[in-house]
């Protein structure tokens, strides 16, 4: 009888009895250990802690993942997005033409190869209602689920949030908003290009400038000519285009689906 079995003999009766005990060796920690099997089928190793160490490591990893996911959820919830768009996912986007299929594939690929160290931006351009916002939100949602920090901002709403932050009673201050945008792993600028006051434009320019060289997605339905309509826009636009992979998403307005046929 080995020392382990001797010590187990002193254990009170209500503890399950050992029905088998094997002397084995663990190659990982290079130690001899005893594998005891209890009458209820459970086992325990005495002399090797490798499994316990692996379990503790896994629990620690899960704990950090949970913290990261909570952080990602909290940040994502500050997004400025309408309710309908919140239902948009990559797998509920049904492309009807080749160029829209191409854009959907690019969206999946974007999620797949997302790497914090290798910044990569998308510029989704096209006519109304072709799903630019849908795809941008779909990507944002997937990456948030993976634990990345993501913000999705409708640009007009973002500008109005910044304007309202000057009000002393506001819950937000301008610097907090900007630093949040600065720090996220992915920033979505949805519907960029709608007319802005000069002051807003300065803010937008500052925000885009500080995001350069990071992961960004821009959606717009303005043409290149419209985007370059004045010097200030040209300045912003050239920076966006300079760092982005561009996808043209032209097509029928999905919002009008079914409506044309009813008349
Ligand atoms: N191919 C599609 N499959 C499923 N839903 C779609 C598709 N295209 C658009 N939609 C839906 O139609 C609505 C309009 O799409 P979305 O807002 O993404 O268009 P957009 O290209 O951003 O338009 P805009 O240029 O006006 O901003 C959304 O509710 C979106 O979920
Ligand atoms: Mg849109
Ligand atoms: Zn071991």
UniProtKB/TrEMBL annotation:
Protein name, entry field: AAA family ATPase
Top-level taxonomic group: Bacteria
GO molecular function: ATP binding
Organism: Macrococcoides goetzii
Domain IstB-like ATP-binding: 121-257
BP terms from Gene Ontology: DNA replication
Cited Gene3D superfamilies: P-loop containing nucleotide triphosphate hydrolases (3.40.50.300)
Pfam short name (any one): IstB_IS21
């Amino acid at each position: 009888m080995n020392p382990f079995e001797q010590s187990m003999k002193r254990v009170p009766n209500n503890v399950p009895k050992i029905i088998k005990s094997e002397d084995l060796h663990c190659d990982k920690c290079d130690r001899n250990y005893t594998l005891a099997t209890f009458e209820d089928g459970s086992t325990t190793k005495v002399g090797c802690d490798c499994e316990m160490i692996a379990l503790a490591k896994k629990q620690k990893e899960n704990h950090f993942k949970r913290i990261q996911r909570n952080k990602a959820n909290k940040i994502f919830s500050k997004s400025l997005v309408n309710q309908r768009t919140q239902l948009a996912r990559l797998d509920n986007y049904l492309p009807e033409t080749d160029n829209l299929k191409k854009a959907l594939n690019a969206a999946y690929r974007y999620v797949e190869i997302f790497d914090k160290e290798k910044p990569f931006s998308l510029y989704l351009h096209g006519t109304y209602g072709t799903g630019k916002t849908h795809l941008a939100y779909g990507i944002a949602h997937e990456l948030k689920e993976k634990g990345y920090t993501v913000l999705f901002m409708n640009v007009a709403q973002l500008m109005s949030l910044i304007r309202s932050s000057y009000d002393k009673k506001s819950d937000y201050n301008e610097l907090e908003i900007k630093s949040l945008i600065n720090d996220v792993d992915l920033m979505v600028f949805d519907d960029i290009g709608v007319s802005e006051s000069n002051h807003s434009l300065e803010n937008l320019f500052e925000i885009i400038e500080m995001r350069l060289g990071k992961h960004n997605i821009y959606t717009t339905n303005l043409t290149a000519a419209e985007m370059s309509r004045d010097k200030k826009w040209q300045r912003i636009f050239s920076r966006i285009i300079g760092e982005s992979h561009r996808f043209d998403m032209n097509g029928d307005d999905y919002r009008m689906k079914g409506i044309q046929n009813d008349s």
